[in-house]
Write a structure and sequence with these properties.
By secondary structure, the protein is mostly helical. 63% of the residues lie in helices and 7% in strands.
Length: 173
């Protein structure tokens, strides 16, 4: 167990009146630790300045990895972020030659963005580090335990989606 995370017994004892809060605190802590280890591992594995990116810059690169040829407006709609913030992020990534831009043939006012080869390398490294951290996270757990945990998390997700009136949607990473 990591010294940064409280022991399970401590979590249960502190939250007997609020088990739902304890679940979400644990999920939040696990996700924060996962992202932190993923990015730290990536930064430690290379001295390439292109990989000295912020969390949001990695998220933008990830979006264009999953949606090559998407526009800045599509990223704004997907992320819910401010247009100016997204414009600054994209400009920075283009300046670092991580994103390539091409004028939209059907609407010359719009620009289509995709990862450059350097951007693809960065995303591949990030995904590789993510797989490494994921394997560390479930070390010592059986396939059945992983399946049970996934099932419980999907139930939580379904409860929230039902309450929000949302149909099950793809992950917005």
């Amino acid at each position: 167990m990591s010294p940064n995370l409280p022991k399970t017994v401590d979590l249960v004892n502190q939250s007997q009146d609020k088990p739902a809060d304890a679940v979400f605190d644990a999920v939040h802590n696990v996700m924060h630790l996962y992202r932190s280890m993923q990015l730290r591992g990536l930064r430690d594995s290379t001295r390439d300045p292109a990989q000295e990116l912020t969390h949001m810059e990695y998220k933008v690169l990830g979006f264009f990895a999953r949606h090559p040829g998407a526009s800045q407006s599509e990223l704004v709609a997907h992320s819910g972020r401010d247009k100016a913030q997204v414009a600054r992020l994209i400009k920075g990534l283009r300046d670092q030659q991580l994103l390539d831009a091409q004028v939209d043939e059907t609407d010359r006012r719009s620009t289509r963005l995709r990862l450059s080869s350097l951007g693809s390398n960065v995303i591949d490294s990030l995904e590789g580090m993510g797989a490494h951290v994921s394997n560390l996270a479930v070390q010592g757990m059986s396939t059945e335990e992983c399946t049970q945990l996934l099932s419980l998390l999907m139930r939580i997700k379904g409860n929230l989606e039902a309450e929000a009136g949302a149909a099950p949607a793809a992950d917005k990473n």
